[in-house]
Amino acid sequence: MTSSKVWIHGYNGRMGQTIQKLLEQEGQGLEVFGGSGRNYIKNPFQEKKEVDSAVLSHDLAKIDVIIDFSNSEGNDLLFESVSRLDQGISKKILIGSTGLSQDQLRNWKNLAKESGHAILFAPNTSLGVLILMKVSREVSQTLSKGSFDIEIVESHHRNKIDAPSGTALFLASQIARASDREVVTDRKGKRNENELGVVALRGGSVFGEHSVKFLGDYEELSFEHRAVSRELFAQGAIKLTHWMVKHANFGKHYGIEDIDLVNL
């Protein structure tokens, strides 16, 4: 079986390192070709120099799949580098970076359409979170007809930059759309009707906890996901990369809500 060449953007980070380690152990058709971080890193991971979009674009032309776990600034560099690829060169790109602005997301979507790339936005690569989203979205459609309020509470380690987390905002947007509610992240004072509140807690070394709460007058229902290892997200990223290789169509962009669990 022919392997797909993978480039890891954000290679120096904890997620990038974990993904690289797992792929080298058992890539199952995915081969790490190179990566980029604060310093430009090229296979065999010995040459280091400053990142430059022109040089990075040159190497990206040689690979099949890009996995991005950088940050907002690093994602801009990747966007500029992919934009410099010659017309007709299309890539499959998994964007796992969180904290991206609506403008950044819109730019990627437009690039997919204009240049023929296939892009998957995955603010959380845990398969459990995907299940949490699908279950909560379905339940919200039923309970929205009753007197249930919906709130999302998320907890992360003290050093996480974005708050609320990208995962919490993703869950909120999906549930709000299904139940015709408005997402509120900075509530002050009394709760308004048809709000879906998101609360962020920061402290300690928590990998990530997300709880979707349905609060009624006489009963409460909650669904919770708790991550206990960073390897969970790396394994999920690899599964989603396999999905992209097999199922993603060029010229389209996807969210993890589009993923059919049967095909993972």
General description of the model:
With 264 residues, this protein is an alpha/beta fold. The chain has 2 domains: 4-121 and 231-263, 3-Layer(aba) Sandwich (Rossmann fold), CATH 3.40.50.720; 127-227, Dihydrodipicolinate Reductase, domain 2 (2-Layer Sandwich). It is 36% helix and 27% strand. It has 7 helices and 13 strands. The strands form 2 sheets. Strands 4-3-2-1-5-6-7-13 form an 8-stranded mixed sheet, with helices on both faces. α1 links the parallel β1 (4-9) and β2 (30-36). α2 (53-60) crosses α3 and α3 runs parallel beside α4. The longest helix has 17 residues, at 127-143. It is elongated, with a radius of gyration of 19 Å.
Structure in a nutshell:
With 264 residues, the chain is α/β, with parallel strands linked by helices.
Spans of at least 5 consecutive residues whose pLDDT stays below 50 are none
The side-by-side strand order for the widest beta sheet comes to 4-3-2-1-5-6-7-13
Give the termini separation: 19 Å
Fourth-tier CATH superfamily name of the largest domain: NAD(P)-binding Rossmann-like Domain
- CATH class descriptor of the largest domain: Alpha Beta
The CATH architecture of the largest domain: 3-Layer(aba) Sandwich
| Structural class estimated from helices and strands | alpha/beta
The main pleated sheet reads as:
8 strands, mixed
Shape: elongated
CATH topology of the largest domain: Rossmann fold
CA gyration radius, whole angstroms? 19 Å
Which band does the percent of strand residues land in? 25-35%
Helix proportion of residues, in percent?
Answer: 25-40%
Q: What is the overall pLDDT average?
A: 91
Number of helices: 7
Structural domains: how many? 2
Q: How many β-strands, per DSSP?
A: 13
SSE order, one letter for each helix or strand: EHEEEHEHEHEHEHEEEEHE
